[in-house]
Structures are given as C-alpha cells and as structure tokens.
C-alpha cells in the first residue's frame, strides 16, 4: 500500500513540475514528513521491523520448556510456581479478595536460566509467550519505545485470543535498560517507555485476557523504585549460580541424548566446575562432544570433559610455541602452585597443564572440596599463598622471578583487600573508604610479604620435588589431580 501511495505522490509532483510549479520546497517538506513517520514507530524501520519480529511470536504458541527441564534452582522454581498458581486460580483469589500479581522480577547473574524460567512459567500456566529485550525499546526518538511497549501488549492479547488462550506471558530481558533509576534530567524517551510499561501493567486484564510480565535483570540495584514497589513487579525471585547438586543436575540434563561413556562421573565434573553458570555447564557438555568428535571417539569420555572445562574456563588452546627454556620456567611455576595448593588444601588440584590456553602459558585448575560461601582468615591466607607459590617456586629454583605472575599478584591483592574489608587484618573492623591509599597499600604489602616468606619456606623444603616432577610434566604436558598426587606422595615418603 505504501508503494502505491508513493507512486501517486511522485506522479503528482511530476505533474506540478510540468505546470511550472516550484517543487523543491515541497520535496523538502515531504522528505521531513516521511522521516518523522519512518522513525515514529509506524514507519518501515521501527514499525514493520517490530511487526516482523513479532510475527515470529504470532506463531509462538506455548513454549515446550518445562520446569523439569531446568536443572537446580529448586527454590526459585518453587517460588515461581507458587506465584503462577495465583495467576491460574484467579477465581479462588477473587473469593479472598487477593490482588492479582502483575509482574515477577527474576534477578541473578548471566546464564543462570532466567529465560528458561520464563518459558517454563508460560508452559506451566498454559499461556502464550512473547519475549522482548529492554534494548529493543531504546530509540533516540521520543515516543518510539512507548509505542513499542503498547504494541507488545496488544500483540500479546491478540496472539492469546487467536490461540484461544486467556493468558499471555511477556518476558522482558534486560529490564534495567528501560527501568534504571531516574536521576534529575534523564532522557525523556526512557521516561515515556517506562511509564507506558507501568500503565500497561496497571491495566493488566483487558478482554478477559490476563497479561503477566516476567522481567529479568543482572542489575537489580539499578532499577527505579517505581518498578520494584508492591503492585508492580511484586515478586522478586533470585536465580543464583547453581550449587554442586544443581550443577550435577544441569550437567545430567544436558548429557541426556548424548553418547556419554559409562565411566564419566557427573558429580566429579560438578565438583570441578564451582562458580559455573547453567549456560557455562551447557557449553562444557557441548565442547566435550566436539572434542570427542574431533578425536573420532564413539562416545564422550572423561578426558573430553576435562578439556572442555579448561576451554570454558581459560579459552581455546593456542598454537603459541615457546622455547624449551620458557616451557621449563612455566612448568616450575605451575608445579609451585600445585605443590602449595596440595600441601595446604589436600585433594584440591584437578589439573596441572603446560599447554598454552587463552592468555596463559600453563595453568593449574583447582576444585574446592565443597562449595564455600564463607571464608576464614586462615582460608584466605592459604589462597594468597597458593597465588604466590608460582613466583616462590621460580625464586627457589632459578633464584630470580619472571613477568608471568601478573594475574597471580592481582588475585592475591584482591584477596588481601577482601581480608581488610571484612575486618580480618590487624587494622581491625574498618570502613575501607576511610583508609588512605598509603594505609591500604602498606597493609596489603605487609600481608603479602609475610605470606610470601612462608610460601618460600614451604617451597624450599620440597626443592627435590621440582627436580623429580619437572621432566614428567615436560613430557606429559598435562597431569590430572590423581597423577600429580601420586608423584607428590612418592616424593614425600622418599
Ligand atoms: P542472561 O541473563 O544472560 O539473559 P539467562 O539467565 O536468561 O541469561 P538462559 O538464557 O535462560 O540464561 O540460559 C542460557 C542457556 O544456558 C540455556 O539455553 C540452557 O542451555 C543453559 N542453562 C542455563 N541455566 C540452566 C539450568 N538451570 N538448567 C539447564 N540449562 C540451563
């Protein structure tokens, strides 16, 4: 239709030009008109793109993802299901005069399964599912975002109606993009978009179709109070990084339908992947399958998972070739980390590796015995010593240091700051912000010097261990935790 209108307009202009009417000013006015129409959300760019995106949603019926497809997150799933029961049992709620929920806010780190939760919520409540990201509402032009919010809610109702459902779930990812705190003279466009969203949420039930909003953010602290107050997103559910049991559950879900060797121990992989999100765990299983395929193995084995964990943690293996001298130094450095780690925290070394990956020329992968959320001073000091042990080993073996320990120092300094901030140092309980840079740096240096001397003493005592292990590591290039412990035990008993 737009093209025929354009044709008529063009014909008219040519006719006027033929009559001798000056058409240039008219062309300018028409151009400005088209630009306004184009960017206002009704025109091609904003309007039909939005429609095209949502045409996809038109076909979207009820997502197939169910709560049973989500690993771990038991508390979050339970809370979400309880909230959805309110939505489902509306009659019962009305009898008690309970206000219907308008929105649920899922908060948590990236990749923990917030989108999966929203999809499962739609499945659970037999609702059509539409999704949008906060950044899709952001435009330079005032009114476009608000218009898109309106279209999204209309779309939700129309889709539900077409599919004969009386519920729709709208999932808005990255809600912080439009819902961040307003400070003074904020961008008017953001205000209008947020206001439109709040208005739509207030008039939640139109034409007997309930539209329920689930939003997600990694930055709840940034959100405007207007969004988080009761009556808006009144339920906040945190979707955290999974614990060991949760990680094992997620891994098993992703291992289903894949040829996994019977010796693969899911609990061991779960133990070695402390701090991994659901998305990282999904990636571990996928990478392991790729390694298995590359090596033409008929099933996915332990070694493929070990490589996959390293890849997700450290990045892709690189072809950087190193001189034998550098390789030896890296081996001594890594053996230092592994030795001190095993002496201070037995059974925690998972791999000692001498092949370059990401930025590292070699690395030691540790896994804690249990997931820890609280740390004592002694535990943090041990961590600092493990960080410093690479340099200590170089110093004991070569009598000098190299540049390879920058990351170790950064981690050690961060741990010292945590100790200071949590009142675990001789400074006592203090407000870190009141410390001068000089005071802070003196205290960090004092802790580091003390722990470095202890690490040197510990490393010196095992000088012969380096001599005995160096060649094995240079030849094997990778020792798993058990191989490393065997070598260490041989040295300790001799
Ligand atoms: P973001 O905050 O970055 O948008 P998110 O929290 O919404 O991330 P999802 O998009 O739901 O995370 O998860 C990404 C992928 O990670 C999923 O498609 C799935 O493969 C995997 N995943 C994440 N969490 C889980 C889980 N709890 N169980 C199973 N798979 C998971």
Describe this structure in words.
By secondary structure, the chain is α/β, with parallel strands linked by helices. It folds into four domains: 2-36; 60-238, P-loop containing nucleotide triphosphate hydrolases (Rossmann fold); 244-314, Helicase, Ruva Protein, domain 3, CATH 1.10.8; 324-493, Up-down Bundle (Methane Monooxygenase Hydroxylase, Chain G, domain 1), CATH 1.20.58. Helix content is 57%, strand content 10%. It is built from 20 helices and nine strands. The protein has helices at residues 2-18, 24-39, 44-59, 74-88, 90-96, 114-124, 144-162, 176-179, 188-202, 225-228, 244-255, 266-272, 278-294, 302-314, 324-344, 377-398, 406-421, 437-461, 463-476, 481-493, and strands spanning 103-107, 128-133, 167-173, 205-206, 209-217, 233-238, 349-353, 363-366, 478-480. Strands 1, 2, 3, 4, 5 and 6 form a six-stranded mixed β-sheet that branches. It has a three-stranded antiparallel β-sheet with strand order 8-7-9. Strand 4 and strand 5 (209-217) form a beta hairpin. The longest helix has 25 residues, at 437-461. It is elongated and about 100 Å long. It starts with a helix and ends with a helix. The relative contact order is 0.07. Mean pLDDT is 84; it is low at 40-59. Bound molecules: adenosine-5'-triphosphate (ATP). Adenosine-5'-triphosphate binds next to helix 6, helix 11 and helix 13.
